UniProtKB/TrEMBL annotation:
Ranges of residues in domain Response regulatory: 8-119
Gene Ontology biological process terms, A to Z: phosphorelay signal transduction system
InterPro entries: Bact_response_regulator, CheY-like_superfamily, Sig_transdc_resp-reg_receiver
Organism the protein comes from: Aureimonas altamirensis
UniProt keyword terms in alphabetical order: Phosphoprotein, Transcription, Transcription regulation
Residues that bear 4-aspartylphosphate: D58
Protein name, entry field: Response regulatory domain-containing protein
Length: 119
């Protein structure tokens, strides 16, 4: 997938091993990847001027913001950013997702994450 070589991704996941595995997979497949352990940390990156082509975020995380809050802020402030919400604990109501966001239930196939990056 040559198109992924031009993409900047952000992985937002509070579980270090899950985050590391996802970052490694995406990096190994050509994406330029940044990471954050909480939605609060991710939002600080955005506020500092970082812009991402795609953000993969868990839902339940410690801090003021959860993944859905982050997704809604991204949708308002960074309209061009694709948003993929990942969770093994809950499936939010469709109305709770920002327009255009994709929800994947854990466990997910890593290959599906690459497909979403280039859609």
């Amino acid at each position: 997938m040559e198109l992924v070589h031009e993409l900047l991704a952000l992985v937002v996941e509070d579980e270090p091993m899950v985050r590391m595995a996802l970052v490694d997979f995406l990096s190994d497949n050509g994406l330029d990847v940044r990471e954050a352990g909480t939605a609060d940390d991710a939002w600080r990156l955005i506020e500092a001027g970082e812009r991402f082509d795609i953000v993969y975020t868990d839902v339940n995380m410690p801090g003021e913001l959860d993944g859905l809050d982050l997704a809604h802020r991204l949708h308002r402030e960074c309209e061009a950013t694709r948003i993929v919400i990942l969770s093994g604990r809950q499936h939010p109501e469709r109305a709770a997702l920002p327009d255009g966001a994709v929800f994947l239930t854990k466990p997910y196939r890593y290959e599906d994450l690459l497909v979403l990056a280039v859609q």
